Amino acid sequence: MDRFLKFQENVATLWRVKNAVVRARIDSELKANAVRVLAACGLEPSDAIRMFLQQVVAHQGIRSTFAAPYEGRRWPNCRY
């Protein structure tokens, strides 16, 4: 039984469960424009928010530029 629990712990570490919700009130026009731009990049708004929060943690603050490729990927339809 202990071996099985250790296996579950290792799997949980590899695949983090996305279980937290972030809510924000923003202008509807801003949201629509952002969704359009992100869709052209092949991203969902939640992807962009996740990327931003990962950068905040990695740099322990907000960077003045936020245009680096995400995990080594570049999107051809996006401007950098």
Q: Rg, please?
A: 17 Å
Q: Regions with pLDDT < 50 over 5+ consecutive residues? A: none
Shape: extended
Strand content: under 5%
The total count of helices amounts to 3
Q: Can you tell me the number of structural domains? A: 1
Mean pLDDT figure: 77
Number of strand elements = 0
Helix content: 40-55%
Order of helices and strands: HHH
Helix-strand makeup class = mainly alpha
Largest sheet: none
How far is it from the N-terminal to the C-terminal residue, by CA? Answer: 51 Å
Fold topology:
Layout: H1 2-14, H2 28-40, H3 45-59
Could you explain how this protein is built, in words?
With 80 residues, the chain is mainly α. It has one domain. It is 51% helix and 0% strand. The chain has three helices and no strands. It is extended. The chain starts with a helix and ends in a 21-residue tail after the last helix. The model has no long low-confidence stretch (mean pLDDT 77).
Any descriptors?
single chain, 80 residues, mainly alpha, 3 helices
What's this, in brief?
With 80 residues, the chain is mainly alpha-helical.
